[in-house]
Amino acid sequence: MRDRFGREINYLRISVTRRCNFHCAYCGAAKSDARELTPEQFAAFAAAFARAGITKIRLTGGEPLIRDDIAEIAEAVRAAALPETLAITTNGFLLKEKAPALKQAGVDAVNISLDTLDPECFRRMTGRDALAAVLEGLETALAQGFKRVKVNAVLLRGVNDGDAERLAALARDYPLDVRFIELMPTGDGDDYQKRLIPSGELLARFPHLSPVPGEDGAAEYYAVEGYRGRIGLISPVSKKFCNDCSRIRLLADGQLKPCLGQKETYDLLPYLNEPDRLYEAICQCIRNKPAGHHFEKAQGLAPMNQIGG
């Protein structure tokens, strides 16, 4: 389905929880939700979104693996929507334990949020001494044979920006993509401008990168001779890609958020047991998707763990 700007909206991100077992400064504090949808409810929503043209689904959080029933959610969503791709984004802490069940449930791809390979820096950034567990989760995901494994890193000036080269080297040593994502003005955002590292500045540190043309999505990919994977740059602030945005977000409580960078949400839960009305409400929200965000103005938005990343 296309929105009023002619963009094809075919990508749904489902936040299954706002809770998290990390406390990353740029994401927000862990939340305890009074209302989180059940696997059956997520499946009903997924079926309605598929009817509206959604072909790619990603499960997010908070931290999605914190839910004991995450594999059940994944299996139910896949069965209901039959997406071309079912992916999940995780901090990796519980991935060693849960990767086999996720693969069996039909998850195709895994993104792992990993901002540093320095144990002490990791502890400061996440509030947990858990780097070893995350790296074990990464190894397990690769061993499970998911179609694609990616590492997502947010670099903060003066915090972990010195680790960019070490993170990039993961794509040399493993068959995965390492993507550097510009800091977005969500959460408290007090130090946002001085912490932001534009992708252009990072690209200048990697003169050996060769652009990979023809890729869809938010990331611009680059190849490096001798690397098993690729390097990606995602630039929501310095190089807005709103004109090509194809995604919408369903939050853990049944709210639909058409744009990550706008505050508007629409409550779809009242329509859950009325498939035709739910479909119509989804279509209306897609048609009314905003033209784009205004991250360049650095206005504060809800913490990332509340809006599905």
* Mean model confidence by pLDDT: 91
Which class do the helix and strand fractions yield? alpha/beta
Q: Give the CA-CA distance, first to last residue.
A: 22 Å
Strand order of the largest sheet: 7-8-9-6-5-4-3-2-1-10-11-12
- Architecture in CATH? Alpha-Beta Barrel
In angstroms, what is the radius of gyration? 18 Å
> So, the CATH homologous superfamily?
Aldolase class I
**Strand segment count:** 12
- Uncertain runs are none
Number of domains: 1
The fraction of residues assigned to DSSP E strands is: 15-25%
Using the coordinates above, name the CATH class: Alpha Beta
- What is the helix/strand order? EHEHEHEHHEHHEHHEEEEEEHH
Coarse shape: globular
- Sketch the major β-sheet: 12 strands, mixed
- Total number of helical segments? 11
> In CATH terms, what is the fold-level topology?
TIM Barrel
Write the layout of secondary structure elements.
Layout: E1 11-15, H1 39-51, E2 56-60, H2 70-81, E3 85-90, H3 95-105, E4 109-113, H4 119-126, H5 131-144, E5 148-153, H6 164-168, H7 170-173, E6 177-181, H8 192-195, H9 199-204, E7 210-212, E8 220-223, E9 231-234, E10 247-250, E11 255-257, E12 266-267, H10 275-287, H11 304-307
Parallel strand pairs: 1-2, 1-10, 2-3, 3-4, 4-5, 5-6, 6-9
Antiparallel strand pairs: 7-8, 8-9, 10-11, 11-12
